[in-house]
Amino acid sequence: MTLALIAILGGFALLIWSADRFVDGAAATAKHLGMPSLLIGMVVVGFGTSAPEMVVSAMASLDGNPDLALGNAIGSNIVNIGLILGITALISPISVHSNIVRKELPLLTLIGGLVGFILLDGALTRFESLLLLTGFIGLVSWTIFVALRTRGDNLETETDQLLLAQAMPIQKALFWLVVGLVALIISSRILVWGAVTVAHSLGVSDLIIGLTIVAFGTSLPELAASVIAARRGEHDIAIGNVVGSNMFNLLAVIGIAGVIKPMGSFPADIVHRDWATMMLMTVGLLVMTFGFRKTGQLNRIKGCVLLFFFVAYNTYLLLDVMAK
To answer: Where does 232-275 have alpha helices with state H?
Structure first.
């Protein structure tokens, strides 16, 4: 039990460190290969902040713990909206004025509805998982297309040249890219082993551990990115990071886990309790941030509301575990 707790804490620490090194290496490598800065921000960093969820869920499925993988994906979305955006809004209210974000939030809601429809029968087949992965590939492809089409050539060239001059050498970038990826896999295995061991020792299900402890740990990169972006006045990045990560979680994290290990059955609570909570918070975020006549804003009051729902949900999970 003690060793498992140490594994969870050590796994979290290594996970965050490796994700940071992976993003740095990937971004610098992409810059040396000529990718525009806008594309790096939307795709490479988006991948980086969602990498912990992807790798942890993949490792959990390989280890025969699909409930933990599914709980990690849905739980991370709840953490991202309730805890991360709630804390970020309390620190620095977020103005939402980007047309891209206002388009992505309705899209996130539609993707959430699709995932709920797929999970409604209490199973996740490999075909359904492949559909989710296809949607993920389509989403990334469309993002790349829009980024390349809408960038300003002259400004982008000057910006790219400046960033390339500041980027780490290609050899160092490739080194951290590989080291970060390897460390991500190792830390994910340590974290999953520790979480599953603790869950079994306490008689708690893999699903609950995935929804809470693992979901919080894998969402730490999003927390850091959103808080830093909000404090710097990059409001669209702060909320766009969470919206993009949640899309990745629903399409890629669940898709990868289901392709590795199709789920013949899982607890009905995943749909009736966890998915429903995620959708309630997603729709709530859409309503809170959509400016019907002016710029939408996620102020401190709305941040408190999001935090309240997050705390209420986790309190319910705790009481449910204690009752059993």
So the answer is: 235-248, 254-260, 269
